[in-house]
Amino acid sequence: MEQETIRVLVVEDHHVVRQGLVALLNVVDGIEVVSQAADGVEAIAEFRKHLPHITLIDLRLPRLGGVDVIQRVRMETPGARFIVLTTYDGDEDIYRALQAGARAYLLKGMTTDELIATIRAVHAGKQHIPPAIAQKLAERMGTEELTPRENDVLEQIVHGKSNKEIAAELDISEATVKTHINSLLGKLGVTDRTQAATAAIQRGIVPLESLRKPKP
Amino acid sequence: MEQETIRVLVVEDHHVVRQGLVALLNVVDGIEVVSQAADGVEAIAEFRKHLPHITLIDLRLPRLGGVDVIQRVRMETPGARFIVLTTYDGDEDIYRALQAGARAYLLKGMTTDELIATIRAVHAGKQHIPPAIAQKLAERMGTEELTPRENDVLEQIVHGKSNKEIAAELDISEATVKTHINSLLGKLGVTDRTQAATAAIQRGIVPLESLRKPKP
DNA sequence: GCGAGGCTCCATCAAAAGGTGGAGACAGAG
DNA sequence: CTCTGTCTCCACCTTTTGATGGAGCCTCGC
Question: Nearest nt (C1') to A185 (CA)?
């Protein structure tokens, strides 16, 4: 019996990686790359234009992140199937991507065969989360969610602010800052702000890019 | 007149990226990928076997890092020409790679044309550092070098240790720890340990991987 | 040999951070 | 409506951290 050709959209900002993916996939029987995008905005446009069966997407994208793309596209096309293809960027992204509706999460280190098998599986309606990722997800499940305010404070900590500066920045008293810190230290399972900062970075709660001196 | 074919070795641990690079380069006239390697140890072996004109190498490699590969290979083959091809991993890696003798440093976001042009340029004996990288390099030049001991202390700070714990770990007094910290804070241009930790991570002085709970 | 720089340690002090317990306001969920 | 959780603030206390200014020792290079 005839297999339907799987129509794929590749979203990836690194030229050589994207070109490589397209080249690899286009020689596979039953898979056709119908379009490509190099950032989140393009991705949404290309999705609308081609309505692919599967969208292969990196999470780190210029202009609009992968998670946002998944959310927005699935808002208008709930059946859209996404396979996240990324290097490890911290537990938080994995969680958010799957929450947003991604069906599979692959690390860039996987083999071509794994990639193709996953595309076929997801197209067939299955889900695919590698053990290493499932592991991270399980760990993350055991941890408490930070409140919005605690996240604000944590972000300031990562940016190297003192309690006094944080209080000024968020327009609350230093006492309140301490309260939030005490609470978030417990939730993160750490004992001081430095540990909180590294935990936030490694878990992807606060993106590393934001460290390159913004603050105007 | 006849151009000599440039023989290239591709060293990259991510399958799809490596395959993509090879596919892209092999269709280019005058360039031939003679071998591939997925980690640092393989890289050295393949280099010895094929003695390529150009080695395209990622810095993040299993078993043996890219910087070490460059150092060791150039020890026995001083004329070896390396092009570092990586995502941005912190200023420190750029510096070390160029110190080790890399001739060019490209970000993975570059176009295929840029890549090919750089390969040709390096093969012709030129050097190629993109402006963005040169910028980082210049910044790093202005900063003071940390002493070995200060680096030890900084690493402990990043791992969330208190001064007392650091003293125990390094078998020195807490007073000495404070001395080192005071010194390294000045050199890093920061005012407290939390800022020192994030600076160390972002500059690649302490690798982010080492945070995933080691310590047996 | 002498100086520079690195490593070690000291004492002291002020500032910052962290721990505890309590409390009022407010919103949303049951 | 009441309960729960969040956000806000307070006071009080201890511990930690950072700043300062010495000081002795060792090694390397000149």
Answer: C18
CA distances from B7 to A160, A200, B30 (A): 48, 44, 9
Residue A196, pLDDT above cutoff 90: yes
Interface of A with B (CB under 8 A): 13-17, 19-21, 23-24, 87, 108-112, 115, 157-160, 162, 190-195, 197-198, 201-202, 208, 211-212
Q: What mean pLDDT is reported for chain A?
A: 88
Task: Region of A189 please: left (phi>0), alpha (psi -120 to 50) or beta.
Answer: left
Closest nucleotide to A192: CA versus each C1': C18
Strands across the sheet containing A104-107: A31-37, A6-11, A54-57, A81-86, A104-107
**Res. A135: pLDDT tops 50:** yes
pLDDT of residue B160: 93
The angle subtended at Cα B32 by Cα B31 and Cα B35, nearest 5°, is 140
pLDDT in the model for residue A141: 67
Place of tokens 């692959």: A106
Q: Could you tell me the distance in Å between the CA of residue A109 and the C1' of nucleotide C14?
A: 52
A49 compared with B129, residue with greater pLDDT: A49
Tell if the CB–CB gap between B20 and A15 is shorter than 8 Å: no
Mean pLDDT of A116-121: 95
Of the pLDDT bands very low, low, confident and very high (cuts 50, 70, 90), residue B214 is: very low
Residue A25 has pLDDT above 70, yes or no: yes
Distance CA B154, CA A194 (A): 12
Sign for the CA dihedral angle at A66, A71, A74, A80 comes to positive
The Cβ of residue A82 has, within 10 Å, a number of other Cβ atoms equal to: 27
Is A160's CB within 8 Å of B192's CB?
Answer: yes
Distance CA B130, CA B88 (A): 12
- Residues in Cβ contact with A140 at an 8 Å cutoff, skipping those fewer than 6 apart: A91, A92, A94, A95, A203
Categorize the per-residue pLDDT at A37 as very low, low, confident or very high, splitting at 50, 70 and 90: very high
Q: Are B195 and A24 inside 8 Å of each other by CB?
A: no
Cα–Cα distance, A116 to A32 (Å, whole number): 11
Q: Is the pLDDT of residue A78 over 50?
A: yes
Mutation test of the interface with chain A: which of B192, B198, B201, B202, choosing the one with the most A Cβ atoms within 10 A?
Answer: B198
